[in-house]
């Protein structure tokens, strides 16, 4: 079984356990307490290259990333550094995250927040909204067409933006035919073996229809990479480990973007 397959299997078990403790109908009663809307897609639409800065505790490939990191301190640095939006990785078993990290990020920042997780069930869409997410990630490699369409509809019914992630031509073609999303993430990481190739974004970009907001994800660590992605028409980048490992995430973000990302226009 691939890394992705193992993560999806553990995610399914975790969701089933949470649903047993708190049934969906009871969870939905908490939707009325949601805070103000922070449009995620709109934050990425400003001129220039927008940065989605990610809070991420660990990963299967990198291990522990920043021991003792607090959500409040990191997302405050991201906001000061000019991030246009936040991503909070909430998967627990493999990445050490939790929905409480998302709640903390919401309280510590005014930026819109993407819940980054392996979302495979309507229950996760509802808990994302309850926890304060403004957008969710749907990974094409983890879903069949019927699942993708259903979860995409569930998210929009709750006024959540959706970043649909692809990593090859087949997935992109299928996604465009199934939900035709406004936000398309191109993951430079192969979720089968976790290898990274930034050239993947350049290869797939030509097949993305005009008018879509394109986000390049994974393997980004230099100003030169970001400048080239902006030159070829990428709208936003999602950066996690590079910023999380920095002694000063705000300064690192400013240095990567040259102070002219969407958050500083």
TrEMBL record:
The keyword Lyase applies. This is indole-3-glycerol-phosphate synthase. One of its GO terms (biological process) is L-tryptophan biosynthetic process. The keyword Amino-acid biosynthesis applies. Residues 5-256 form the Indole-3-glycerol phosphate synthase domain. Its EC number is 4.1.1.48. HAMAP family: IGPS_B (MF_00134_B). Keywords: Amino-acid biosynthesis, Aromatic amino acid biosynthesis, Decarboxylase, Lyase, Tryptophan biosynthesis. It catalyses: 1-(2-carboxyphenylamino)-1-deoxy-D-ribulose 5-phosphate + H(+) = (1S,2R)-1-C-(indol-3-yl)glycerol 3-phosphate + CO2 + H2O. One of its GO terms (molecular function) is phosphoribosylanthranilate isomerase activity. It comes from freshwater metagenome. It is an enzyme of class 4 (lyase). Pathway: Amino-acid biosynthesis; L-tryptophan biosynthesis; L-tryptophan from chorismate: step 4/5.
